[in-house]
Amino acid sequence: MSQGKSSEWRFWYAQHKGTLLAAGLFVVMFAIYVSNHPAGFTPNVVQTASNKATLLAFVAMAQCFVVITGGIDLSAGMILILSNCLASWLVVGTPFQTGIGIAAVLLAGLGCGALNGLIIIFGRLQPIVTTIATSAIFFGLALLLRPTPGGAVNETLADVFTSKLFGIFPTSLIVLAATILLIWIPFSRSTLGRAAYAAGSAENAAYMSGMPLKSAKFTAYALGGLLSSIGGLYLTFFSYTGEAAYASGNAYTLYSIAAVVLGGVALSGGRGSAIGAVFGALAFRTIGDLLFVFDFDPLWQPLFQGVVLMLAISIGCFGLARVRNRLEWFQ
């Protein structure tokens, strides 16, 4: 019995090692940040840090859904930008109009992700090529909506989603946790979720086993678009406006890839968790906060982000260097 429990714990640890590493890294860095912040560990400090990290966390979750299938989504940042521009037109007016606007933005993000999935699955194109092309399409649509920055948003709603619940808990973190509970956990434990992991681990074997690979991939891409659109909504809530910012879209795409790697998600597919990707995003954003609190030159930020990322990847690769077969990950 004790050997069985020990084996279960080893299996659980192997599955969640990347998530634990990212969580530990974030906790250490955030503890250093708040201990050196002039205001200390206060609700306002936590709220500000949470709001800054939420955008990347949603896009990192979106990227994770795709990466576990063995693909990659280079349009995730542009879906966020398109959703931001669309929200600056639609998420205004009465509560009913605002609700309809939010639904329209989320459906647009879902549709963008679904389009990626359909082209990749039925067009049999490589994900990296497909999403480069669709990212240009999504940015073009955003530019049509907002050739210059502008628009508005329901400020009352925006303040609710970016404030603190009961004056203590950042609402953005609560929404992030709710998204994990309502989207990621049901998906990861479903037949489609297991098929998505199988597609990234050993697609040929999964196909021979009769797993619903096409449905799993389509769902992963569609949900990835939905999550990116939630990030776009939050960008609108923070800025009160919409902007077709090409540089920001590319930055969020690249940072989302860095966050999933930092969170222990294997870029080869079949391994990792959206929870790890979220902690990876939180850790990645905390690097900038550390540089601010220690009054470093902002020009150093990319260097420090790269160093921390490389160290985290290197630690995660120590065990993988001895792996000859992916099945050994869980032995």
UniProtKB/TrEMBL annotation:
InterPro entries: ABC_transp_permease. It is found in: Cell membrane. Pfam families: BPD_transp_2. Its main location: membrane. This is Sugar ABC transporter permease. Keywords: Cell membrane, Membrane, Transmembrane, Transmembrane helix. GO terms for molecular function: transmembrane transporter activity. It comes from Rhizobium tubonense. One of its GO terms (cellular component) is plasma membrane. It is a multi-pass membrane protein. The chain crosses the membrane at residues 12-33, 53-72, 79-96, 102-121, 128-145, 165-185, 218-237, 249-267, 300-321.
